[in-house]
Amino acid sequence: MTQYLQDPALWALIAGTPLAATAIIRGRKARANLRQEKAELEKRAAELESSYAEAVQEAHTRAEEATKSALKSAMRTLQGLANEQQLAISKTQEKYGEHQLLQDLLEIDHMNSQFGRRAQSIAVLCDGWLGRQRAVASVYDVVRSAKGRIRHYTRVEIRSQSNFALVSRAVEPVALALAELLDNATSYSAPDSPIDITIRTVPKGVCVIIDDAGVGMNEEEKNRADKLLSATHATGVTGLGNPPQFGFAVIGVLAARYGFTVSVDSASPYGGVRAVVLLPEDLLTNMPEPEEQPTTHAPAAAEQPRVSASTVSGATAGGLPKRRRKGSISIVPRADSTSAPARTSEETASIMGAFQRGTQSGRSAANPNREGHDPQ
Amino acid sequence: MTSPGEQEPESAQLVRPYVITNGRGLPDNDQFNLITLVTASEQRQPSHLDPEKRRLLELCSGGYLSVAEIAGHMGLPIGIVKVLLSDLSTDGYLVTRAPAPPAQLVDVSLLQEVLDGLQARFG
């Protein structure tokens, strides 16, 4: 034992043990502190991260909003200009209706329509102005209007007509959505292949079916299209990709806003895509005919003097008097029927009375002669 | 740019003229001029005609109308109406008649002779 007592190592051990113990205790404390600090730091980091994400999201939203409002007002100007230009082109077309210039005017008109559509599409994504309210129009006319807004419109064939019309608020959105579908159809198919449109009445409304003979879509493209078309989330302008693909995003927004459905998940009989637009009953109305009546007659009545005056001066010789008598039925009876009911009931009564007195006196006067003039 | 209120009364046609003719411009042949007279033929209308063609046939069903009158009623440029007319007459739904020739300017001396003759006989 004494040899141990003399061993400096023992003394060193004895002296070292409390030191070691304190060191261990301190180490533990320090570790606990560290752990606590780490936890705090982690918590703070998480907080920072979430607030950072929030800030980014907010900045994103703000940037989106700013982009939208800037684009919206820019597009509104462009849309206004396109509309003005369209009216100017219409007037020039009327003026040079017979001139060789008409052909060029038609082409300019076509380009202007495409230009207007592009501006409209961007405006739709920015929750902007869609354009003027249209009058009620037949589904066939809306489809034709859509056809006129794409570049290769001559490839589009409309195979059927419909007795239904679209309510005025739905005319422009449906035409724009159809135009975007047609644009896709012509872009993703061979340059000379036809695009067929069929209009079909179904129990839930009217279907416009667009068949192209293109390459179709793969699963990924279909999923993307479905996501955009169902419009569960708005894409906005910043999520369009590069190069930006407007089509489905625009259609999705329009469909959600106006309550029609668009699906592109079936294949066309030609191997391409079949797009089906289902227009529900509340967007439809039943009146293409009464809608046409006032526009037929109002200008007819208003223009009659001008037209007949110009033709009288143009061809006084033979055909005109005869033509006026036979005339277009829509013109002449209108003028008569509006002037006819101007009589008061007293006048009518006195006329009828005069007629009756006349026939009575005529009969009594004719009676003696009658026997003599009755050889049959 | 004008405000939407100002634009309301004037709205361009929904279906543009180039769509109505499907991109075709003026027909090459001079079958129709402003005073060519047109009327609907006896042939029955098919059911699948475009609205513009149907309306044109309706306009012409009452008797002869000139191309200028038709264009006025339809509110379309004359060139477009001519394309439609040419389609319809090719398909046999329309009959055209050349305009009556403008009256010849009659020789004044001939008129004088007629007058003299009438006066000699009845006067």
UniProtKB/TrEMBL annotation, chain A:
Short name of one Pfam family for this protein? HATPase_c
Entry's Gene Ontology molecular function annotations: protein histidine kinase activity
| CC annotations in GO | plasma membrane
What InterPro entries does this protein map onto? HATPase_C_sf, HATPase_dom, TCS_sensor_his_kinase
Question: From start to end residue, where is composition biased (Polar residues)?
Answer: 357-367
Q: Positions of the region Disordered?
A: 286-376
Question: Could you tell me the EC number(s) of this protein?
Answer: 2.7.13.3
Domain Histidine kinase/HSP90-like ATPase per the UniProt entry, residue ranges:
174-281
Q: Which domain of life is it from?
A: Bacteria
The alphabetical list of record keywords is: Coiled coil, Kinase, Phosphoprotein, Transferase
Q: What reaction does this enzyme carry out catalytically? A: ATP + protein L-histidine = ADP + protein N-phospho-L-histidine
A biological process from GO: phosphorelay signal transduction system
Q: What positions belong to coiled-coil segments?
A: 24-58
Report the protein name in the record: histidine kinase
Task: Please give the organism.
Answer: Streptomyces sp. RM-5-8
Organism lineage = Bacteria, Bacillati, Actinomycetota, Actinomycetes, Kitasatosporales
From TrEMBL, chain B:
Could you tell me which Pfam families the record lists for this protein?
DUF742
Q: Which domain of life is it from?
A: Bacteria
Q: Which PANTHER family match?
A: DUF742 DOMAIN-CONTAINING PROTEIN (PTHR36221:SF1)
Q: What is this protein called?
A: DUF742 domain-containing protein
The root-end lineage is: Bacteria, Bacillati, Actinomycetota, Actinomycetes, Kitasatosporales
